[in-house]
Amino acid sequence: DSGVTQTPKHLITATGQRVTLRCSPRSGDLSVYWYQQSLDQGLQFLIQYYNGEERAKGNILERFSAQQFPDLHSELNLSSLELGDSALYFCASSAEGYEQYFGPGTRLTVT
Amino acid sequence: AQSVTQLGSHVSVSEGALVLLRCNYSSSVPPYLFWYVQYPNQGLQLLLKYTSAATLVKGINGFEAEFKKSETSFHLTKPSAHMSDAAEYFCAVSEGNTPLVFGKGTRLSVIA
How far apart are CA A43 and CA A55, in angstroms? Predict the structure, then answer.
């Protein structure tokens, strides 16, 4: 158990819909990262927050957005969903060290 | 820009045999290197990390990796494979407290 929690574990929705994925980092970790894992793209970095502020942006679509709240939990919002958005979405957290600890992921299926 | 190349998308070994998973990286700054393991339907678990201390790094479950700057490599080894080692292994690089750049992964199969 990494100490990072993600909800929900599974999500099935239709094209065009909007979903919110939630992540709670390890106690005390200020950085939260979101990654997408798909068969064709592998593990891709989406976005990083540090203590409530956006710190880095990766291959995140404009239809996707995220935020980190004062209690340090983070949410990833995916809108106007397409079939190609079906993937595993991971959240990771880190302290001032360099290693990142991953949550169990949310498997999103868009039908 | 940083990048990681994992040689071999699938490696198969016999139980008790040496495990060698290859990782080469590219980085314009001194890298921080990691190996993660992913079991089916689970998240990524940190196996070990290199953060500019000892070049030979020991991790969990008997795995270790050696950082070789001259070869830009960070190969993962284990002297004796167990059935429970069957999983997907990912090598990753970062500049520190920055996003990880992952390789495409190597699926390890262990044959009884």
Answer: 19
- Nearest residue of chain A to residue B31 (CA atoms): A98
Alpha-carbon torsion, ordered B42, A88, B46, B27, to 10 deg: 160
Separation CA A77–CA B47 (nearest Å): 30
Using DSSP bridges, classify how beta strands B87-94 and B73-78 pair: parallel, antiparallel or unpaired. Answer: unpaired
How far A75 CA sits from the closest chain B CA (Å)?
17
Residues in chain A within 8 Å Cβ distance of B101: 45
One-letter identity of residue A19:
V
Task: Give the model confidence (pLDDT) of A8-59 as tens digits.
Answer: 999 999 999 999 999 999 999 999 999 999 988 899 999 999 999 999 999 8
Does residue A33 sit at the B interface (CB-CB below 8 Å)?
A: yes
- Taking a C-beta distance cutoff of 8 angstroms, is the pair A86, A109 a contact? yes
The CA distance from B45 to the nearest CA of chain A, in Å, is 7
Sign of CA dihedral A102, A103, A104, A107: negative
Encoded amino acid at A46, one letter: L
SS3 for B69? coil
Find the closest chain A residue to B52 by CA distance.
Answer: A98
CA–CA distance, B65 with B56 (Å, rounded to integer)? 6
Phi, psi at B43, each rounded to 5°: -80, -175
Tokens of A29: 């970790």
pLDDT at A75: 98
Instruction: In whole angstroms, give the CA distance from residue A32 to residue A24.
Output: 9
